[in-house]
């Protein structure tokens, strides 16, 4: 229904380090703040101080306890937002052209003027990365802070996504994956950055750096057993994470409850 560009000049995206993320939610709050006050319709809340509070978020952090055989349990915090996929099913399913991927930098956006709130794109996204704003009736998703990164009214150090600028642990990195010399390309190569659910062929631009075992000083064992390299089928920690993700309800109302 809506075409994707065959290629993009840049591939802007995030590297998220699951080894250093401490689950503080600062990225969630700064994202909500910036994207409520700036680009597009505000991100609404429903009953924020009442029963069953709900709200629209572009970035959420899910926390899990992971235990491998013979190892102590450890907590892994998993920040989740749009991965700006190269083969984005959320774009091709859109009946109005409201969802689109930019040729110049690869950012996936929603034109709120032509969005009819049908929800097809949220259904098509396998990562649960889109949320229909209950008040505005339009689809919301991470914009990579497109109104910050090119904003010449901001000091240069602030021309980064709000989540990256805010993260106190330095767990979030922004850059161009099309450039093999960029910070994100180098981090991904050096630390074994991974795609989420690679078997779906969505070709996510964002990459995750896997967590190391916390109670091991042995370099050999640091990557085992969670970090089997992703092959044809997702295995190890990322496979387990994929399963947890697939259990997340597609219903955006329910997603809103687990911030
Ligand atoms: S993560 Fe979901 S919303 Fe983002 S581009 Fe991929 S399919 Fe679309
Ligand atoms: S909710 Fe909006 S962006 Fe999503 S498929 Fe429908 S019209 Fe397109
Ligand atoms: S701000 Fe950084 S450390 Fe805190 S939850 Fe987000 S990614 Fe993790």
UniProtKB/TrEMBL annotation:
InterPro entries assigned to the protein according to its UniProt record, in alphabetical order: 4Fe4S_Fe-S-bd, 4Fe4S_Fe_S_CS, ET_IronSulfur_Cluster-Binding
Protein's recorded name: Tetrathionate reductase electron transport protein
PANTHER family: PROTEIN NRFC, PROTEIN NRFC HOMOLOG
Tagged with keyword 4Fe-4S: yes
PROSITE patterns the UniProt entry points to: 4FE4S_FER_1, 4FE4S_FER_2
Pfam short name (any one): Fer4_11
4Fe-4S ferredoxin-type domain ranges (all copies): 12-42, 73-104, 106-135
Molecular function, one GO term: metal ion binding
Keywords of the record: 4Fe-4S, Iron, Iron-sulfur, Metal-binding
């Amino acid at each position: 229904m809506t075409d994707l560009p065959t290629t993009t000049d840049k591939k802007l995206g995030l590297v998220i380090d699951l080894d250093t993320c401490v689950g503080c939610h600062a990225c969630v709050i700064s994202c909500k703040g910036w994207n409520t006050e700036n680009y597009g319709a505000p991100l609404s809340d429903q009953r924020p101080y009442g029963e069953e509070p709900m709200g629209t978020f572009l970035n959420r952090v899910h926390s899990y306890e992971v235990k491998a055989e013979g190892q102590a349990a450890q907590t892994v915090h998993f920040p989740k937002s749009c991965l700006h996929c190269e083969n984005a099913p959320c774009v091709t399913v859109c009946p109005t052209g409201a969802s689109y991927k930019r040729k110049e930098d690869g950012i996936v956006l929603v034109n709120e003027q032509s969005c009819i709130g049908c929800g097809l794109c949220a259904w098509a996204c396998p990562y649960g990365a889109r949320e229909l704003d209950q008040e505005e009736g339009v689809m919301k998703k991470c914009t990579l802070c497109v109104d910050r990164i090119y904003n010449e009214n901001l000091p240069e150090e602030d021309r980064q996504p709000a989540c990256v600028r805010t993260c106190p642990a330095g767990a979030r990195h922004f850059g161009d994956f099309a450039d093999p010399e960029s910070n994100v390309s180098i981090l991904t190569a050096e630390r074994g950055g991974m795609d989420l659910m690679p078997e779906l062929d969505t070709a996510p631009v964002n990459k995750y750096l896997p967590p190391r075992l916390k109670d091991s000083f042995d370099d050999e064992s640091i990557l085992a057993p969670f970090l089997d390299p992703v092959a044809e089928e997702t295995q190890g920690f990322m496979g387990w994470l994929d399963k947890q993700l697939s259990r997340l309800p597609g219903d955006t109302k329910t997603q809103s409850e687990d911030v």
